[in-house]
Amino acid sequence: MKKIILFSTILLIITALTGCSYEIVKKTSNGDMGKPTNQATELSAKDILDLQSKCASSAQALFSTLGYEGTNSDYTNHYNSKLNKCFILIDSTSIPDDFTYKEL
């Protein structure tokens, strides 16, 4: 029984690490199934650059809208073409008003 649980756990970990991939099959105009295509490669390099640019400008606008501009903060953005998502990481450091320090 322990061997089955161990094997199942190893199989689950391998599946999680390698990920799952699938292909989309497009239907042609005459009704035949065409060649499988990977959805991530359907975007051209120009399209991806445009989306990265939009991601950068949206991240900058959000950073300003949230009031971080002019503070001790910074942001980094990333566009993931496989997920078709824009990510923003805001790094902010603040010191409480009642913070005191002592020089040594």
Describe the fold and architecture:
With 104 residues, this protein is an alpha+beta fold. It is built from 2 helices and 4 strands; from the N terminus they run αββαββ. The chain has helices at 2-18, 45-65; strands spanning 24-27, 33-37, 73-80, 85-92. The strands form 2 sheets. The protein has a two-stranded antiparallel ribbon. A two-stranded antiparallel ribbon has the order 3-4. The longest helix is centred in the middle third of the chain and has 21 residues, at 45-65. The radius of gyration is 24 Å and the shape is elongated. The N and C termini lie far apart (62 Å). Residues 6-12 and 14-28 have low confidence and may be disordered.
Q: Can you count the beta strands?
A: 4
| Helix content class | 25-40%
Q: Estimate the mean pLDDT confidence.
A: 73
Q: What general form does the structure show?
A: elongated
What spatial order of strands do you see in the largest sheet? 1-2
Helical run tally: 2
Low-confidence stretches: 6-12, 14-28
- Beta fraction: 15-25%
Order of SSEs: HEEHEE
End-to-end separation in angstroms reads: 62 Å
List its traits.
104 residues; alpha+beta; two-stranded antiparallel ribbon; 2 helices; 4 strands
Briefly characterize the structure.
This protein has 104 residues and is an alpha+beta fold. The chain has helices spanning 2-18, 45-65; strands spanning 24-27, 33-37, 73-80, 85-92.
Topology (SSEs and partners):
Blueprint: H1 2-18, E1 24-27, E2 33-37, H2 45-65, E3 73-80, E4 85-92
Antiparallel strand pairs: 1-2, 3-4
